[in-house]
Amino acid sequence: SSLTPLLAIETSCDDTACAILDSHGTLLGESVLSQEDHAALGGVVPEIAARAHLKALPSLVDLTLERAGLALSDIALFAATTGPGLIGGLIVGSSYAKGLAMARGKPFMGINHIEAHILTPRLPASLRPEETAPNFPYLALLVSGGHCQCILVEGVGQYRRLGGTIDDSAGEAFDKVAKMLGLGWPGGPALEALAKEGNPRAYTLPRPLKGRPGCDFSFSGLKTAVSRHLEPFGREALPRHIAADLAASFQQAVADVMTDRVKQALAMVPPVTALVVAGGVAANQTLRQRLENIAQEHHIAFLAPPLRFCTDNAAMIGWAALERLYQGEQPGDIALAPRPRWP
Ligand code: KG4
Ligand code: ZN
Q1: Edge-to-edge strand list for the sheet holding 148-155
Q2: Is-contact 59 33, C-beta < 8 A?
Q3: DSSP character for 167?
Q4: Where, by residue number, does substrate bind (predicted)?
């Protein structure tokens, strides 16, 4: 169409990402820069993230154009994440995209980050080799460092939030427990690796909200329970087998909670065609397996986008823009302000 190729920018957390898509959603060029300054600080520092996005964007956009074999003048539409997320990064990314759009006299489209995540399983076949795209309605579980929620996806732009976390996100819980166990940041992958050596039944940990109706999540009680088991060790080094048992027990508890919550969610909605999981925590094999089992029990498809599209990326932002264009929606108001929260 006259609105492609489009260039999309994602800066809502600590990944600076740019992607260029054609009218079918084929990825013509892509680049991602994961900020590393935060690891030493044990978490994402918003102000540092915003400055890093600003520093990275110009060359990242140039590199993406180069990879696509295109010039800026070829781009017909500029899209960027305008929320939810860290406001500094959102301002940087969306202002940069708006600036390019104004300079070239082209339209701008602001994209909701959550919407982009939950539409990823619908990415074109070229980007998800092994899987078929789900039909509506489907149930999406978004589990990342910033988010933990369950959404019924009835169509593009038709979402029903069934529940979400009342304290930490799933990723935060993994990261905080990993930190207690002396693993690096982000700790999810390291915790999963360590859990492979441990016994998931070694420690009795709570399953917050398990069995309750609805689809809310809570992880802070679980985190506190892990810290209580660590108290006897004080400042001594934690023996590896203890750390492994705690990691395995914690992971098991999270998996049990997620299983329960997703089952509750399925009971709340009309029949769906698929269970979809997105977000960085979807990399966890134990969780994936459990979710796959639920899908099998319900005779519905289980879809997890390839890992690079599970975590924050700009291809999903471009794809969400396309899905909206396919629906006949026109690019939005260039004055649209980014918003840290977007119900
Ligand atoms: O989607 P993502 O890359 O970015 C955010 O939205 O934050 O998710 C990152 C989160 C981190 O909290 C990280 O620890 C977690 O996903 N994570 C994992 C695993 N891989 C990444 N959590 C558990 N098991 C994993 N294998
Ligand atoms: Zn995200």
Answers
A1: 158-164, 148-155, 138-143, 274-278, 301-303
A2: no
A3: S
A4: 142-146, 175, 188, 192, 284
Closest protein CA for atom 8 of ligand 1: 280
Fold of 6-125+311-326: Nucleotidyltransferase; domain 5 (3.30.420)
Q: Is the ipTM of this complex over 0.90?
A: yes
pLDDT, tens only, 37-75: 777 777 888 999 999 999 999 999 999 999 999 999 999
What secondary structure letter does DSSP report for 100?
H
CATH number for the segment(s) 134-304: 3.30.420.40
pLDDT for res 1: 59
State the distance from the centre of ligand 2 to the C-alpha of 278, rounded, in angstroms.
Answer: 9
**Domain 6-125+311-326 matches domain 134-304 at the CATH topology level:** yes
CA–centroid distance, 113 to ligand 2, in Å, is 6
Is omega for the bond preceding 137 within 30 degrees of 0, making it cis?
A: yes
Q: Which of 174, 192, 258, 307 to mutate to test the pocket of ligand 1 (most atoms within 8 A of CB)?
A: 174
Q: How far apart are CA 205 and CA 253, in angstroms?
A: 7
- Distance from Cα 309 to the centre of ligand 1, integer Å: 12
Ligand located closest to 81 CA: 2
Task: Ligand 1: list residues with CB < 6 Å.
Answer: 13, 144-146, 171, 174-175, 186-189, 192, 279-281, 283-284, 311-312
